[in-house]
Structure formats: C-alpha cells, structure tokens
Amino acid sequence: MTMIQEKKETEGTRMPFGDRRDSPFYRRDIVSVLQFSDDDLAYIFDVAHEMREMVARIGAFDLLKGKLLANLFYEPSTRTSSSFTAAMERLGGSVIPINEVTYSSVSKGESLPDTVRSLEAYADVIVLRHPEQGASALAARYTTKPIINAGDGVGEHPTQALLDLFTIIEELGDPQGLTVTMVGDLKYGRTVHSLARLLARYDVTLNYVSPDILRMPESITAELGEMGVVQTVHDDLGRVIGDSDVVYVTRVQKERFENPSDYETVSGAYVITPETMRSAKERMVLMHPLPRVNEISIEVDDDPRAAYFRQMEYGMYVRMALLALVLGKA
Ligand code: CP
Fold first, then answer.
1. Which of 73, 79, 81 should be mutated for ligand 1, with most atoms under 8 A from CB?
2. What is the pTM of this model?
3. Which CATH number is correct for 158-311, 3.40.630.10, 3.20.20.70, 3.40.50.1370, 3.60.10.10?
4. Centroid of ligand 1 to alpha carbon of 81 (angstroms)
5. What is the mean pLDDT of each run of 10 residues along the chain (330 residues)?
6. Lowest CB count within 10 Å: 100, 102, 174, 187, which one?
7. Hey, whose CA ends up nearest to atom 1 of ligand 1?
8. The dihedral sign for the CA sequence 250, 252, 255, 259
9. Which fold has domain 3-156+313-326?
10. Given the CA of residue 76, which atom of ligand 1 is nearest to it?
11. What order do you get walking across the sheet with 68-73 strand by strand?
C-alpha cells in the first residue's frame, strides 16, 4: 500500500492550533485509492457522515475559515468542480476557480509544475483535474500544498470512488457480500477503475458488462485477481442484472477515442429503461457518476432505486471531509 509522504511545512509556517498533525491526512496528497488503508476509509466516511448531519442541521460552518482552495481544472467538470466549491464554502473557506485554463497562463505555455508552484503561494490546497494519467502525482512533487486528484485522464478519480463507496454504504450498508455490476465504458472510465480497486478490499463479486473494445483494462483485472476478487465479464446486462445489488453505469467517453468511428459502433450499446429495471432486485441501487448522455433513460429517474442524484449529493459530504482532513481539521 503506497502512502504518500507528508508534505514539508514551508519555512515560517506556524501551527496555531493544537493537534492538527494527528490527522493521518494532514498535508497529504490524495492521488490514488491505493493509498488508503481500511482505517483511513472508515475515518473519512465517519467524518463525511458528520458533515452530512451538520449540513442538514446548520447548512454551513466556519471550520475552514481563512483557508483557500485552488480549483484547477484542465478538463470540463460540473459536479467535481462545483462540489469542491460547495464543500469549501460550506466549511467557511474560499475558492480560486480556474475552471477554464484557456483563460489562464496555461494558454501561454505554462507548465503544470510552474502552475501548481504558483498557486501554492495563494492557496492551502489544490484540486486538480487533468487529461493526462499521472498528472496529479507529478503536480504533487512540485508543491508543498496538498494536491487532490479530481481525475487524471484514464487513470483514477479517487474522490469519485470514495463518494461512490460512501453512497453504497449509505444506501445498502456494509459492502461485504455485494454483487456490483459495472456497465458501459470500462476501458476509459476512470471512475470504475478507482471504484473497482476500492471495492476489492471487500468480499464482493464484480461483473463487468461492456462492448468488447471497452473492457476493463487487464492491468486492473489482474491486480484484483491477485487479491482473490471474483470477476466476470459479459456483453449482455440481462445475464447479471437480476443478481446485482449495485448497477454502476458509465458514459462512453467519446473524447478519449483515437478513432471516432469506433465510438459510433458502441455508443448506445446499453440503455437502462424502466423495462430493464423490472429485471433488477427490489433492493438495489442504480448509480452513475454523471454526466449521462443516453445510458439511463429519464423515465428511470423516479424509480427509488435510481441513486445517481443522491450519489452526487453524497459527494459534497465526502469532499467536505477530505478538505477538512487534509487541512488538519479532523
Ligand atoms: N462525476 C464527475 O466527475 O462529473 P464531472 O465531470 O461533472 O465533474
């Protein structure tokens, strides 16, 4: 299990409050789900649960008053960007939004290391989405401030995986023994890469349903195979939906295809409709990281098992927890 090194304090930094160093996340980067221990997950989810209750009770509070988050997005985002903003502001902190890098000095050719080095002068934590796999790990080497990976190309989306697992726990309880079926673009969908790795620490069965050209990468199935995870591969969702406790649907990532004509052959391969849901268990959850294009018809939205908008909301509580923890406010 890789643990990211604690960042060095910059010269002159003071520790005005008591035991901030006790948090296992204080000044840590969040770059991959592989960095978390089971205790880490339990801790994050406890704090996220408390955040949920606090928001329900009082809406916002001043835990991170005076702290600044730089939201640095080289790729489009609605949920990740705005939920980190909402999380920071509900905790009393502020946000430097760089959601469109074409209007920043990146368009003049500034490198990622120089950009994060610059932002660390202003911000206490940097959330980064970037089209290249490994970008967050790279950025983390060039700044003393914590980097939170908000998606690195086809690599990982660790905070999405945390919120996905939190959703499963909030909706269904203990993940032990669950059958989770992942559907759609398992090749380019970074959310399923991270979620499969997180779920591998439980006794789960993972079904992968996708067109042939969009299978889960062998690097991930091999990694999970070594951990003893039961994994099955299918073309037909109908064969496994009735046994599934979670059906996790993903968008086909058009922007990542090298050959656009390949996209046309697989777009629309799986569409969840009310009829599909008739084959599903009464107690199951239908999830999607969003945005959806046409993978789940809007007629399904009123089905109580459709959890994708609740999933989005859970994301804010998880991100509130992460921001508080990396800034030493456990
Ligand atoms: N789930 C997710 O990452 O959504 P955005 O691309 O809108 O951030």
1. 79
2. 0.91
3. 3.40.50.1370
4. 8
5. 48 38 86 95 94 95 96 95 98 93 78 96 97 96 97 93 98 97 94 95 97 95 97 97 98 81 81 98 98 95 98 98 93
6. 102
7. 289
8. positive
9. Rossmann fold (3.40.50)
10. 6
11. 94-98, 68-73, 125-130, 147-152
